[in-house]
Specification:
This protein is α+β, with helices and mostly antiparallel strands. The protein has a domain of 220 residues. The chain is built from four helices and 18 strands. The chain has an 18-stranded antiparallel β-sheet that branches. The chain is elongated, with a radius of gyration of 25 Å.
């Protein structure tokens, strides 16, 4: 065997040993991080149980597969009625590529419980969370998820949400951008005699010095389109407060559809249309456009100075709206 070949073999062996050492160190760190996560979740009020954790992924990634994950929180601090999620397994994957991104992916049979809605199955679509190890970046993406909650199952075609956050002592700064396509609410729509689905929804949120700026949101459903913006902060009582505007396009067309389906009386439709005509203008495409001011004060939500809802008391997370 030539000297050059010997050097190549020695180099490959050294590289394999280095990779194995890196994999072992990363795998041990992932186990420790998982244990710390469970401990912190318990401190924060979550009840989390899981089965055995299996090391995988050598030589290209540190990977931990956790069996039988169940997590829930029922103290009402996040949502009345609590929240819960479970998966047959949870995959934690850290590929040895730059930049380092931890991927979290539930696998197998899954279920979700939100608020007072019943615990219902989630289809085995694709749900992936990627995050930077320093916590300053997170990306959530789903494909073809179906939540079989009754009486109106929700089918989610495509969702992408990305969070960038820089944390210092103060203030919290960052941004959240989310887009949603193909949220099928046809079952719910049929209850109102309508057909269609939300074709698109988008959010662009900025976090700066304790102020949450909803730079833009847009929702389309059939002939109805809603978009707008708002600036929110926490008041002296720690409750959300702020102002914004909502722009509604096609409201008169939606009223006509509701009346034709018999969901509202022709008289009510006519009254609502007359009110809209006093507020509306004609857009560039010739459709009706209504622009309404939105305000939140003392948990009261008003639209065009008319009270429309009262928010329940909220326990806002630290660092989101300080």
């Amino acid at each position: 065997m030539s000297g050059r070949l010997v050097r190549i073999v020695i180099g490959l062996v050294a590289l394999a040993l280095l990779d194995t050492a890196l994999w072992y160190a990363a795998e041990m760190q992932m186990r420790a991080s998982w244990r710390n996560t469970l401990a912190q979740a318990a401190v924060d009020g979550w009840h989390v149980t899981s089965g055995e954790a299996h090391a995988e992924g050598w030589p290209t990634a540190a990977r931990l597969r956790v069996d039988g994950l169940e997590m829930s929180r029922d103290d009402g601090r996040i949502l009345a009625g609590g929240i819960g999620f479970g998966a047959q397994s949870l995959l934690l994957d850290l590929p040895f590529t730059l930049p380092l991104r931890l991927t979290i992916r539930p696998q197998g049979a899954q279920h979700l419980r939100v608020g007072l809605l019943p615990d219902s199955a989630l289809s085995e679509g694709d749900l992936v969370l990627r995050t930077a190890l320093d916590g300053g970046f997170a990306n959530l993406a789903t494909e073809n998820m179906v939540w079989s909650v009754q009486p109106a199952p929700l089918a989610l075609g495509h969702l992408v949400a990305e969070l960038h956050q820089n944390r210092g002592a103060h203030p919290t700064q960052g941004s959240l951008v989310a887009t949603l396509d193909g949220l099928d609410i046809s079952v719910l729509a049929q209850r109102f005699g309508l057909q269609g689905l939300i074709a698109h929804a988008g959010l662009d949120i900025g976090l700066q010095d304790g102020i949450v700026t909803l730079r833009d949101f847009a929702i389309t459903w059939g002939k109805l389109a809603v978009n707008g913006n708002a600036t929110m902060h926490a008041d002296a009582a720690g409750q959300p407060a702020g102002e914004g505007k909502v722009v509604i396009t096609g409201a008169d067309e939606m009223l006509a559809e509701l009346a034709a389906a018999g969901r509202i009386t022709p008289q009510n439709a006519q009254t609502a249309t007359l009110i809209l005509r006093m507020l509306q203008r004609t857009g560039q495409d010739g459709r009706s456009v209504v622009e309404l001011p939105l305000s939140v004060r003392d948990r009261a939500v008003t639209v065009a100075q008319f009270p429309v809802a009262r928010l329940p008391p909220m326990n806002l997370p630290q660092g989101i709206i300080p």
